[in-house]
Amino acid sequence: MEINLPEVLAEVQHISDVYEKALVSNDVAMLNLLFWNSPHTLRYGLNDQQYGFDAICAFRAAQPKQGVQRTVLRTLITTYGRDAATVNLEFQRADSACTGRQSQTWMRTAQGWRIVAAHVSLLTTGE
Question: What's the pTM value of the predicted model, to 2 decimals?
């Protein structure tokens, strides 16, 4: 298996940037589109968890309508072959002194790159 093929890395960087733009602008339709439409998809949030695409969409629909203002501090993307990738980033939210972490597993599907698993957490001590 080839790691970080340049063209695949560029694709995942692009789609990760699309996700970040959708998150900070609260583009719920795009956020939903970027998750794999499957009962196997999961998202662990700060104080919540969703199992399955439908639960993720319901969670997004219930969130406040403003975007999440944050600054990305560091991003690490690793691709595995042509159809799988992880995107891990550290961020600083505008409303918190805590550093946040976001991990996503992406898979190439017939519809394009989709998130199959995501996890968000905050570091509260020992940063």
Answer: 0.92
